[in-house]
Each structure stands twice: as C-alpha cells, then as structure tokens.
Amino acid sequence: MKTRSRPVTFFLYGTLIVTSLMLLLPLLxxxxxxxxxxxxxxxxxxxxxxxxxxxxxxxxxxxxxxxxWLYFRNTMFIFVMKxxxxxxxxxxxxxxxxxxxVKFKSLWFTIMLSVIxxxxxxxxxxxxxxxLGFGWFDTYYPLFTACFFATDVFMIFLFRQFFMSVPKExxxxxxxxxxxxxxxxxxxxxPLSRPAILTCLILYFTGTYxxxxxxxxxxxxxxxWTMAQGIKSIEDVFNLGPRDYIVPWNLVSSATLLSLxxxxxxxxxxxxxxxxxxxxxxxxx
Amino acid sequence: MDIFHxxxxxxxxxxxxxxxxxxxxxxxxxxxxxxxxxxLKLLLALFAALLINTKxxxxxxxxxxxFLPFVIPTFAVAYVFRFFFHPANGLVNEVGTKIGLTPSxxxxxxxxALLTLVLSSLWGFGVPMLIFLxxxxxxxxxxxxxxxxxxASSWQKFKAITLPAIxxxxxxxxxxxxxxxxxxxxxxxxxxxxxGYPANSTLLYSVYLFNQAFKNPWQIGYASALALIFFVIxxxxxxxxxxxxxxxxxxxN
Lengths: 285, 253
Hints:
By secondary structure, chain A is an all-alpha fold. Chain A has helices spanning 6-33, 38-42, 55-62, 68-99, 105-114, 120-133, 141-144, 153-164, 168-176, 181-192, 194-210, 213-218, 227-237, 249-284.
C-alpha cells in the first residue's frame, strides 16, 4: 500500500469529518427529540429538550398495542423470504443473460427493463386484485411470493452489470476444466459477486424494514404487523380525528431509534465484509 | 363482462396534453426536480464512494456513518428536514444569517419550495453510493500499483483506471437515478402535504397521479392515462440513456 502525503491525508480526513457531521445531523435531531416531552415535541422546534427524560423509551414498551419483538420477528420473516427468493432467481436470470445466446435476447432484456419504468402506484391495483383472488388477504404471501419469480428487475440488472465485469478468461478456463454451467455459476460467479450480493442484502433489509405500503395493504390483524406498521400505529394512538392530526414525534422518534438497532448491527457486519472483500481483491490482483 | 363499456376514446389523453394546466405545472416541476436531483445525487454518491473506498486508518467508522442515510425511514427524514428548513427557527436560516445570508422561506415560499425538496432529496444518495462502492471494490489493486510506478497522478488514475472499470455500474446508476428521480414520490408527498404545497410548487408527476387515482373524485381512468404518458416519457429517456451509454461503457466481454 502506498503512503499518502500529509496534506492529502489531512484533506481526506477533513472531508470525511465534515460530511459525517452533516449526515449525523438528522439522526442527532431524532435522538434529541426522543428525549422530549409530548408538548415539546409537537411545539416550536428547539434542538435540545428542557430536560432529558427516558420516559418515551419506557412508554414504548408499555404501550398496549405495540410489541417490538413481535414486529421484529414478523419483519425478519418477510425479509428472509424476500431476499432468498430474489438472490436465487435474480442471479440465475442475470447469469442466463450474460452466458446464453437466446433468440431476441436484447429484446427480452429491453422488455424486462421497461418494467422498472412503470410507476409502482399503477401496479398496485391489479396486483391487489390478483392476490385477493388467491385468498391471500391477511397473509404474508403477497409480500414475498413475487420475489421467487425474479421479478426484481433492478436486481437482475445490478447482478448482470456485476457479472459483466468478471474477466471472460475465468469462464473459459472453467469450461476447459469441464465445469458444468451450474458449477460455473455457483462456484465461480457467486463467490466473486459477494459485494453485489451484500448490496442486495442491505437494500432488501432496509427496504423491508421501511416499507409501509405493501404491509398496510395486505396485513390487517395486528399480530401480523411489521415494524413500520407498528411505528405507524403509534401515530394513531394520538389521532384525534382527521382534522386534528397530531403526531407524537417524541414517541415516534424513540420507537424509530429502537427499530434502527438491528439495521445498525447489520451495517456494522456488512462494512466488515466489505473490508474483507477489499483484502480479497488485493490477493487476487 | 364488457371491458369496452364506458370507453371515451382519447378524451383522457386530450385532457392531459392540451387542457389540464395543473398537469403541465407538475410535468415542468418534475423535469426541473429530476435533472437537479439525478445529477447532484450521482456526483455526491460517486464522491462519497471514492472517499470511503480509501484505505485510511479508521475508515470503517466513517463507512458506517455514510451508510446512515439508508436506515432512517422517509417519514422521519421528512420530519427532520421540515425543521431544518423552518423559515422562522430552522437550522439552515440560523446558520445562514450568521454568515450574512438573507433568511429564506424555504418550503413555505413557492419560489424556493422545489429547491428545498431537491436539497432534502440529496439525503438519499445512499443507494447509488453503495452500488458505486461495491463496484470500486472489484477494481484490481495491481492496476493502481502499476500506474503509480509510472508516476500517474490521482486524476490520471481515476480517468484511466477507475472510470473505465466501473463504467458498467456507472451506466446502471445513471439509468436508475434518472428513472428514480422522475418517479420520486415519498418525500414530495410528505413535504408538500400531499398536494404540492405551496401553490403546486412541489407538485411532482407521481404525486399528481396518485391524487387523481386515489383521492376524491377517484379518476382512475384519467390517472391510467397519465401513467401511460409517464411510462412513454421514461421509456424515451431510458432509450436516450442507452444510446449515451454506448459512448462510455467499457466491458470485459
């Protein structure tokens, strides 16, 4: 590894620190709000609470209709089903796209890509009617079934772009050694695509965690709710009717922060994995 | 069932293209918003990815912080930014007055509301950054080492090695940023109070579409026409992107 000159290192750290501070501000605001009283949180905005109190955090666990662990388990179940389906089917599709010469391949690819361009709100209506016809209302199936059919074109496209940057010689060498297509996919391409797979994992984790639209549409019984729905329901505790809609930001902030803990943990692990793949690239190169 | 029941021909398209002035406002807003957000977000994402791809001691800590924009849910982001840009006692005006700028109305002023939305949206550079970072990780280190032996400058290395190596992923990010910024909904919906407040200045295409379809008087037909026009616009822009991509994408295969 080369050594950087002092001014360059200084400049890099300076930029890192300034950017980090800007990125931390919203989180800081969220943390400070979580220590405020209800009156402070909905009133004129001040940075700091008059007095730091942990009541909000206690209240979250005492709220009658809010079960942190239940929502966490439910969300994790949906996440695992979604991510397993997507990674398996989308990498296979991407593999087919770069390895096989099918007739009209670029046409198929263009049709696939055009799906990204459809506004999500538009797709929601027919999908809803479709799943309702299956009798899947108030089940988890509508939330992950589609993932097992390589429907996430974004991910197919992402994996394709990553697979394309793998040197062709690797495939040729494997073919010479008589490796089957599945072996090339599973033993060569998949391990090399670890950063891409990790990216998919992170995107799905936060995506599932924050998604409100789908769960609100399909899950009605509170025992099936996801984390986002749970946090949303806190707002409704204080809902005084459509005209006086007051959001208890103090409780919402503390609930949001609590819900962020698993996501943060994943990031910590993921960023270590990223570092490992740096090391691996070093050996490979 | 007769699906052609109550067909009104091209009436909805006619209304959108020639008559509906609010729609034209939404279209104009969307283009201005999307161009600014797509360009700025990509530059920011690439810059951030390069920054956290350096191998300085303690970089892991900064990486974790740079991932933050991902985790905070949009509703919380909207809430926080509403206070940052608060015309009376927001952080931005507070700091701005200290360095001699005139306080602005930000999201409460129809002249600056769209700009406020653009600035708030930049917070979401995490996805393209992560994709850039993953691509940067795959650039073989020995290429840089060879270039350093030849005495190449940082900019030369970036231009000759990094950019070609990540060009396929850059192309992916360009397409995605274009489509995503045009389709933006969440933040605009939340910050514009669901209706493009103030005076339609933050009314984006998807918000207008949503309001036509799911709010009184529920004009699903008109909304579908709008969605189809939108689809065609996105298709054309993506086509242009594919043509442009041929100029800069270099692949191994």
